[in-house]
Amino acid sequence: MRAFPNFFEKCPKSRITLVLIIGFTLAQVPHLLPSAAHANAAYAANIVDYAFQPLHINITTGTTVTWTYSSNGATIHTVTSDPQTNLTQSGTPLISSGDLSPGQSFSYTFDLPGYYPYQCSVHPNIPAMNGWIMVTGTPVTSPTSTNSSGNPWLLPLGIVAVVGALGLGTWGALRRRHRNIAPHN
Q1: Cα angle: 35, vertex 38, 41; to 5 degrees
Q2: Which domain holds residue 48?
Q3: Which candidate, 128, 139, 181, places its Cα nearest to that of 4?
């Protein structure tokens, strides 16, 4: 009697074993992939005549606010950070739509928590054209600002390939070892 049964020669279990190794290896792919980012929330605001509607907005980080100039006014408006607040490193307003004509929209995604006062730079003295956004939550990294390069599937596929190759190599070595130990008829 042998120390262990002749597992690979009893029936086509070697094929079953190979399928199981590959199956268990592929089952790990979802665990190796980065989590899918949740869809960013969206918030719609309007510019109607000489007013932002709503004037004050409370959102969480990762939310994209879209302002739409929805009235048929004859003037232009902007959505711009208040002067001396929320500036970029170069000193320009963080939120800066440029001129908006009726029917045009501007979107901005708020990735950092904080208080963001904004105004229409064309009509800064009209109270209804001076609003604020309060952003709560933890900072998020927007997908466009990541510094990754190359194919995002390359690393997980490489890991699966290495694990699969090791599994097949181990299986083959065990099979050869088993054949060498087993007495020949």
Answers
A1: 165
A2: 42-142
A3: 181
pLDDT tens-digit readout, 48-60: 999 999 999 999 9
State both tokens at 44: 């719609």
Answer yes or no: do 89 and 160 share one domain: no
CA torsion, points 163, 165, 166, 168, in degrees to nearest 10?
Answer: 120
Instruction: Tell me which amino acid residue 97 is.
Output: S
AA letter at 169? G
Count the domains in the chain.
2
Whether pLDDT at 169 is above 60: yes
Query: CA Rg, the chain, in Å?
Result: 31
Residue 161 to residue 44: CA distance in whole angstroms = 46
pTM of the complete model: 0.57
As a whole number of Å, the end-to-end CA separation of the chain is: 14
> Maximum Cα–Cα distance for the chain, whole Å?
100
**Residue 1 lies inside a defined structural domain of this protein:** no
Measured between alpha carbons, how far is residue 37 from residues 92, 106, 143, 162, 168 in Å? 30, 23, 9, 27, 34
